[in-house]
Amino acid sequence: MSLPPKEASKTTREICGLAPIIPVLVVENAAHARPLAEALVAGGLPVLEVTLRTAAALDVISEMAKVKGGHVGAGTLITAEDVRAAKAAGATFGVSPGATDALLAACEEEDLPLLPGAATASEAMQLLARGYDMLKFFPAEASGGAPALKAIGAPLPQITFCPTGGVTPDNATSYLSLPNVICAGGSWVAPKDMVERGDWAGIETLTREAAALRR
After folding, report:
1. Which of 4, 9, 20, 195 lies 20 to 30 Å from 127, alpha-carbon distance?
2. Given strand 93-95, what is the order of strands in its sheet?
3. How many other CB atoms sit within 10 Å of the CB of residue 200?
4. DSSP assignment letter at 118
């Protein structure tokens, strides 16, 4: 089977619309996966991006995929091998820092909806030409922040974004207030020290605060 880009973007837009913030997670220990996912979902952020930056990442995806109410995606997809491994682990969508023809083709072939990254108008236009109109704006702050994304949106109103990279509780609303932003990705809701000591109640509190941010 093959997933058309327009259908992929429709699916990722629906997923992104479930909450204002997508937690971007770097998890070292698979034993933390389920309680972390349960805290995030209970706090009101059901869409989880597990980055493929640790040896445990695929096991983390598999465990988090078992949590009721969660939508678990694989972040930092770079290669076709990443796509296949993420899909096999139970990821229901993928996220990439950028986009290559090989990566896009792999996601389409594996029926894995992709949120591809773009940092410039040209990159966004190239993805739009292929059929993708729900994109990740990355790295958001380093690429000019909310003012840059607002400027890109003026000539490209048909594209919507999930800005990620440097998004914090202090600047999140500047992104979420833009008409071309569906949600934002952030890592602050699951700080490494809180995860390592198993402070799931504290993480749930941070999650509730993030879930209350207005779009």
Report:
1. 20
2. 114-115, 93-95, 71-75, 47-51, 21-25, 184-186
3. 21
4. E
In this structure, the dihedral spanned by the alpha carbons of residues 55, 137, 176 and 165, taken in order and rounded to 10 degrees, is: 40
The pLDDT tens digits of the residues spanning 169-205 come to: 999 999 999 999 999 999 999 999 999 999 999 999 9
pLDDT tens digits for 7-22?
999 999 999 999 999 9
Q: Hey, where are the domains in the chain?
A: 5-211
* Nearest-angstrom CA–CA distance, 190 and 48: 11
Which tokens hold the place of 177? 């207030």
Return the amino acid letter for 7: E
Topology, domain 5-211? TIM Barrel (3.20.20)
Burial 86-123, CB ≥16 within 10 A → b, else e: bbebebbbbbbbebeeebbebbbebebbbbbbbbebeb
What span, in angstroms and rounded, lies between the C-alpha atoms of 110 and 94?
11
